[in-house]
# Entry
Amino acid sequence: MAITRQKKEEIVARVGDAIKSAKTLVFANFKGLTVAEQNEMRKALRAQGIGYGVAKKSLLRRALESAGYEGQAPVLEGEIGLVWGPAFAEASTGKEDELAPAREVAVYVKKFGEHLSFAGGMFGGKYVSRDEIASIAAIPGMDALRAQFVQLINSPIQRFAVVLNARAEKIQ
# Structure
């Protein structure tokens, strides 16, 4: 059954609103993914405040053209799902994790293997390729980055304390 023109316009408007409000977009090819697997992924994404939707590629292209991002849009082949975020800011702190959509999709790309893959995305107001969005997904969250920074700062101090302790034990 064909989609009416009015319904197509509603879909383009809904996708356009999601695109305009998003800091990050991820295009995910989900060919072969079962409904149960998609529902599992949707539920987990929603819990993180990340939106997920599927639309016809022609309607998706229309919405993307009206958004006016820099660069060349990635080639969208197969069945494409759109993951955007943050859908809402964390209520208590007002923080937004711009990398969360790519990072969360990466978890499911690993889990579902050949049935789910990156197809490209948008980050920082411009289109990025499949490889770039995969590398963005590999960046750890802010808490992990802070922990790594503290470890980096603390490591020389710890080593110095160990050396002093060893010298003190030798003297005794």
